[in-house]
Amino acid sequence: NYLKSVLGITRRSERDCILNRTLIDRTTNQVIQDRSPSDYLSEIGDEDGNELNSILESHLLPSNKDSSLFKNDFQKFLDYRLKMITEEIKHVTA
After folding, report:
1. Considering only CA atoms, which of 64, 89, 85, 88 is closest in space to residue 18?
2. Which long-range contacts (CB under 8 A, 24 or more apart) does 23-28 make?
3. What does the alpha-carbon distance between residue 27 and residue 70 come to, in Å, rounded to a whole number?
4. Structure confidence at residue 34 as a pLDDT band (50, 70, 90)
5. pLDDT value of residue 50
6. Which of 37, 34, 17 is nearest to 79 (CA)?
7. Confidence of residue 47 (pLDDT cuts 50, 70, 90)
8. Are the beta carbons of 4 and 15 closer than 8 angstroms?
9. How far apart are the first and last CA of the chain?
10. Alpha carbon 81 to chain centroid distance?
């Protein structure tokens, strides 16, 4: 809902694309709710410390504090995920 209400991304196909998907548990999903990534990641980071970087990287998500995820730049985030997922597919199928 954050993407729609705050960033104005109205096309559901863009918000719900595979690049914007990752498996998380119910509790994490409830913590996230309708908040920006920079907001909830700061909170999760405080709780998990250095473990957050490892978790993000394991989901092929950017972990750098200056990344698109922490800056709420959705298009750059999608570009990053496309690159990372493509590289991972090439790696496991080589």
Report:
1. 85
2. 23/59
3. 21
4. confident
5. 67
6. 17
7. low
8. yes
9. 38
10. 8
Residue 14 identity: E
Q: Using H for helix, E for strand and C for coil, what is the string for the chain?
A: CHHHHCCCCCCHHHHCCHHHCCCCCHHHHHHHCCCCHHHHHHHHHHHHCCHHHHHHHHCCCCCCCCCCCCCCCHHHHHHHHHHHHHHHHHHHHC
pLDDT over threshold 60, residue 48 = no
Say how far apart CA 80 and CA 52 lie, in whole Å: 18
Residue type (1 letter), 30: Q
